[in-house]
Design goal:
With 239 residues, the chain is mainly beta. Helix content is 12%, strand content 36%. It starts with a helix and ends with a strand. The longest helix has 11 residues.
Length: 239
Amino acid sequence: MRGLLGALLLWASPGLAVDCRDMVFDGAGYTVCEVDATAEDLRLFHEDATGEVIGSFGGIADQPGVGTLVFAMNAGMYHDDRSPVGHYIENGVETMRVIPNAGPGNFGLLPNGVFCITDTSAQVYETMRYLDEAPACRDATQSGPMLVIDGALHPRFLPDSASRFIRNGVGTSADGSRAVFAISNEPVNFHSFGRLFRDGLGLPNALFFDGKVSRLFARDLGRSDFGFRLGPMVAVTEP
């Protein structure tokens, strides 16, 4: 029987698709997973073939033809019914339009952004730039706020902010060849989390995914976080 149990049994096997490691930056602990976007099968997952929300890392592994789950993370905010709050494309099919305007909560703390995946690249775009350039994304998920915009931290971030949560997000290299996912292993504020991507990982653009339901599956670290059922997820699988 395939599923999360099958993935658990493969943790002892060497995995080459994703480089996951624990690190400390500015006194806080993080887990970072780097993906070669030019070569690996990096995709978004939300609903199965019947239209039911997948909702879990094990549910990804249960999808027909997916293969072995190597890495997965929640990838964007969602409503109570687990539908995406913002723009969403999966395998070329758009199910939610781009939301360009400011609004309540972290998603509406502009500038926000879009994580765009093609067959050979991955890029984080600030939302207005995404609309202007209209990249041909095979998969895309909108979230917010942006953590790093062209090498600068989001202008609303405060170094001494008391708003601290377990947070997760993604940053991309300038050429789109690398997607680097990170989750904090202790509560951090936005300023600290943004600095991780900019100063700790050297990435010019990074996007916040979430801060209350942040979860990670990393086969080679023996890690699978459990909790509330999820909306959009990003994953790497192997044949």
